[in-house]
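Q: Predict the bound structure with flavin-adenine dinucleotide.
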Amino acid sequence: MIQTDIAILGAGPGGASTALKLSHLGLPCVLIDKADFPRDKVCGDAISGKVTTLLHRLDPAIMARFHGMSIQSDVWGMRFYAPNGKRVEVPFPIKSEAGHAPGYVSKRIDFDQFLIDEVRRRPDIQLHLNKEISSFKRQETGWRLQTADGDFTVNCRLLVVADGAHSRFSRTIAGLEKDTAHHAAALRAYYRNVGDLSERGFIELHFIHDITPGYFWIFPLPDGMANVGLGMRSDILAKKGLNLKETLRWIIEKHPTISERFKDAELIGKVHGFGLPLGSKPRPISGDHYVLVGDAGHLVDPITGEGIGNACYSGFIAAELAEKCVQENDFSAARLQAYDIRVARVLGSEMALSYRLQKLLAYPRVVNFMARVVAGNQRMMQVLSRMYADFDLRLELARPWFWIKMFFTGKR
Ligand SMILES: Cc1cc2nc3c(=O)[nH]c(=O)nc-3n(C[C@H](O)[C@H](O)[C@H](O)COP(=O)(O)OP(=O)(O)OC[C@H]3O[C@@H](n4cnc5c(N)ncnc54)[C@H](O)[C@@H]3O)c2cc1C
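A: Predicted complex:
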């Protein structure tokens, strides 16, 4: 039996970054995952500037090592396609804080393995793979976690729950039920030889009639591969009576312009689907001796579907609070409320803005109008182009005052 102050359930980006941050704070922890890495995770594989900035600020050597690998394609811009076919190209002219590309696309099988390698560099992180936790028992001093065969048991004072979108703890113990108005379903496929990809790794978001506010994406990967997918809010999907797989097939085979680009493309492997618990509805994400990190805490951006950055960010916040809890010997629900408050402060306004935008994007005409306005507004283009890489600007963007100033004075 293992006895520890802090146990982390799940070694995806949320769990791994919590462990790395704890280690840099000088706190040992136990990190558990049911999978044996490398393991796949259905995702768009886009690693935003939020992720790279957080990791770089933790230790510049981490991003230097990542950049030295060949598992990623650099992202230097975005292409938006409005329902009327208008294309708006937004280049990202500035480098990340680490001096490299502002973002990347990297298959999760590789990126998550990279994080596990970083975890293995830290001797104070006790990593246990192939351990599927199936029982959680509340004890006087914290939680007892156990595998079904009872061969692996961990007692901890603080449990960091980072076991993803299907987290059982989150659903059955923390009470975070799936709400289809704040949940998305998405499909991912890997293709080789998609035509007309940007040479500078621009990621593509296509807003198509009948599937807004969801979107179809093409994210270029190394070696002529691309991550291709389609996502939509679950309640709207049900209301429209759409079948995601058939819709994806229709886009690739029949869409008037997109299908042209797939005529020589080859599907590699199968099409896979997974859920995204969106952060558009504020929920309690801590309790007695536990905090919920990343997808387990429903922290995916409601408009972009970006969840890796928020998983890392919430993990860092959890680690910083854990340090205080250990010092004060207080893991009570009341003390851990500070986690909810801090997460709401740094992510809440960003989520609220995304949710408002998501509602607007339900109307194809509005998307067409927005594309026209953005394309004709240099100032807006500059802001959008910096937004992806500039971590601090993203926080500012969530403030209505920022937009009012920009529209009326052209300054920020
Ligand atoms: C189709 C799709 C496209 C997406 N595209 C993007 C994108 O391009 N960019 C982006 O930023 N985000 C994207 N997301 C969201 C992103 O994938 C998630 O937000 C992110 O993986 C959350 O990280 P996490 O660490 O919280 O959870 P996960 O990455 O899901 O990790 C959870 C870990 O917990 C482990 N685990 C689960 N149960 C147990 C158990 N009982 N015992 C032990 N271990 C357990 C799992 O094995 C897993 O390793 C997408 C999601 C989907 C579905």
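A: The first strand starts at residue 2 and ends at 9.
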